[in-house]
Design a protein that fits this description.
Structural class: alpha+beta
Number of strands: 9
Order of helices and strands: HHEEEEEEEEE
Number of helices: 2
Length: 188
């Protein structure tokens, strides 16, 4: 049989020491992990080092736009080796959701031109051959943003585009001319 141990209560000095160690540890955790991860504050640089600042909820997901929301539907019939270009005027970081579907494969190029700078500053975002594309787009700059479609086959193809977002207007570039289109404003 073992003898009972004499356990004495902690001394005031050991309580103060344990409290100071716990407080110091909590301050270290606060500055190294909690502030960068929760509040985006990184006074020691450890949040950036460990990737914790990416966890902070500092960005508000609500975004207000100056332009009203618009929706658009358009279709183009492309005979063999015909093309069309369709672009929207959009402000910086304006979002748009789109779907385009063709009843045959077409070559496409989704690209944009910054306002006032001309074609030599055009930037292409996606090119390829397909009969459909779906997605969303945030305008990287103010300007015109849209698609070029070309029917490289021998059959007539119809391309149908559905788009919705903070778009100002649109322009069709076809047969050597450009044709402005005012888009319907969502009022309900």
């Amino acid at each position: 049989m073992s003898e009972p141990r004499n356990i004495s209560p902690p001394t005031p000095r050991s309580i103060i020491t344990a409290t100071a160690i716990a407080f110091g540890t909590s301050l270290i955790v606060l500055f190294i992990a909690i502030l960068p991860a929760e509040f985006g504050a990184d006074p020691l640089g450890t949040g950036r080092l460990f990737g914790l600042t990416a966890l902070s909820a500092e960005v508000n997901p609500f975004e207000e736009k100056a332009e009203p929301h618009r929706t658009d539907y358009v279709e183009f019939e492309l005979g063999p080796f015909q093309s069309v270009e369709y672009k929207y005027t959009m402000d910086l970081d304006s979002p748009m959701v789109f779907s385009w579907i063709a009843d045959g494969e077409v070559y496409y190029d989704m690209h944009a031109e910054p306002a006032g700078l001309g074609e030599e500053y055009a930037e292409s975002f996606e090119q390829g051959n397909s009969d459909r594309r779906f997605g969303s787009f945030h305008a990287p700059f103010t300007g015109i943003h849209g698609w070029f479609w070309e029917n490289r086959g021998f059959d007539t193809v119809t391309v149908r585009l559905f788009a919705s977002g903070f778009i100002v207007d649109s322009t069709v570039y076809r047969d050597g001319g450009d044709y402005y289109r005012e888009l319907e404003l969502i009022t309900e």
